[in-house]
Amino acid sequence: MSHTGKITAVLAGLAFLSGGLSASASDGMHYVAAENRFLGPEISCELSEEAGDTAVKTALIEGLEIPQKELSGTRWYYDYVDLSGTGERDVLALLSGPWFSGTGGDTLVWLVSDGNGWKVHQTLTLVRSSVIAADLSGNGRKSLIVYRAGGGTRGMWVELDQVQQENDEYLFTTFNDGVKAPDLGTLKGTALFADDMILDQMTGSYKTLG
């Protein structure tokens, strides 16, 4: 088998293990990462938006003041999410690359509508995909369930709840302040950024800010 054939066979095998799929730009498909298919019986997986929303992209670049030289090396995934339970869409974006990533994970950005487009509302670091959005309070307002690992501590899923601020806005608790999440086997929610990002990187099926 040729070198190209071996690579093709490996990618086909990874795609088979990944299972879930959606339309893509490079090899024709995007896939759900295999590990995300078994998070819990009531946790559905959602692939990130395929098309690059120019308004979201602009808000990320300007709101985070990303240097021009870092744009082409920053990969980004995003989803529209009703975080407030009111039916209004917000955006969660996951940024990875030298400017936004470390051994603990990547950077998650919450964007809200400003009437004309989007603006950065909050950033959270040390985030690993996938991110589970779940209504744990019962009032429609979503909490985020993320996996925390590193620093010599045992890895665990933690819950980041929305907390009302003095100005009546809501922000998620910080990553380090997250409390132990409920058992994923009993949790009902949506796993965002469930894409097989390793396969995306191998096939070039990802977006950059550049």
Give helix and strand order, one letter per element, not per position.
Answer: HEEEHEEEEEEEEEEEHE
Q: What composes the largest sheet?
A: 6 strands, mixed
Determine the structural class based on helices, strands and strand pairing.
alpha+beta
Beta-strand residue percentage: 35-45%
By DSSP (H or I, 4+ residues per run), the number of helices equals 3
Radius of gyration from the alpha-carbon trace, in angstroms: 17 Å
Name the strands of the widest sheet in spatial order. 3-14-8-9-10-13
Low-pLDDT runs of 5+ residues are: 1-28
The coarse overall form would be: globular
Distance separating the two termini? 36 Å
| Count of distinct strands | 15
Q: How helical, in percent, are the residues?
A: 10-25%
Mean pLDDT reading: 86
Features:
single chain; alpha+beta; five-stranded antiparallel beta sheet; 3 helices; 15 strands; disordered N terminus
